[in-house]
Amino acid sequence: MLEKDELIDIAQKVEHCLEQKNFAETKMLLSEMNAVDLAEVLYEISDDKLAIVYRLLPKELAAETFVEMDAEQQEFLLNKFNDKEIKDILSELFLDDTVDIIEEMPAAIVKKILAQADKETRDSINAILSYPEDSAGTIMTTEYVNLKAHYTVKEAFERIRKTGPDKETIYICFVTDQSRKLVGLVSVKDLLLASQDDKIADIMETSVIRVNTHADKEYVAHEMQRYGFLSMAVVDKEDRLVGIVTVDDAMDVLREENDEDFSKMSAVTPSDRPYFKTSVWKIFLNRLPWLLLLMVSATFTSLIISAYEDVLLGLSVTLFACVPMLMDTGGNAGSQSSVTIIRSIALGETYPRDVLKVVWREFCVSLMLGVVMGVVCFAKLMLIDSLYNPMNVYVALTVSIALFITIVIAKLIGSSLPLLAKAIKLDPAVVASPFITTIVDALSLIIYSNIALGLLS
Asked: pTM for the full model?
């Protein structure tokens, strides 16, 4: 894997070669590169030279690189290609990659692609596109090695050699009966270690973990991660094998899920486009609704501050000066718990039924954190803040007690809200840091003000 600076240097060198019309050197430079790195290089190539550079690539490498390119460049090239060039690309692409590309393209490009596909490919594409969005059926491929239980190992290898070049993976072979029902699987390692005359039925694994075509794709990806699978069988309602999900597609799903959760926790509408490929207007629209919502929700905090401002100032100026510290600490404490629980939910480690266990654990943690933070806060107020502002011990005690209670409440809210959201079929990431911070801010101010009234009035 090359560094970003190296890829940019290669792109500049390619553009220089093209300006000198040195196509042979350009082709030699690019042909030895990995498809992933090559896609990064093409990302840096100007549009007027992109099609020229792409046409210099060997056929197989060109197809692999095309899959790794972003949707905008793919669309640009498809508009430049003639029918033969599109057909050549399709012949080298795996079916699931073709479907992924089609899902990103406008209708005119889709029509152009389907026109160059044979009937069998079109039928397979339409079948995959008919599955519900975000289901296992939309990320599976129908290009897998299919064996029969009565095959010998020798016959299995003959079939693999015959059909393998067109399959996405051959490391795991699935075994079906005459009705295409899944009955087992066997790895190439098992075949290599077995005798040529052994029957597949004798060496195959019959306890096969499989998923339904309508299963959520994130669930499939997590199951593959959990079991360490390179591929997973996808079956229909009759338990007939219709496709497989490969590890590269599962990794894409997990990456997309992480990006989406990170965006939501940062109060930004998720986007699947690169930052520099997203227009300023689109970035504005992605961020505005969340900021408006949070601004309106923060109004409650402002009302609480207004209601207690005179009380706090009347008791002690220091009390009012400590409000930002109290709110920030509470928000940070809540965010720590929420992010931890959301990650645990995403990894399948925690479920809504565990809410009481989670709350109890976080309560114990919050007590320890609250005591330490309260003691440190008291010492800070008495030893440091008092150097430039005379400090009343009861004021310092009030702030420290309020901080302790705020941390406990923030931890409980931060740990329970994501689980409650999951229980009512909401995305836990939506109730993460921004909303939890707003809730904790409001509660911490009410608690703080009432403690101050109770101890100091």
From this structure: 0.66
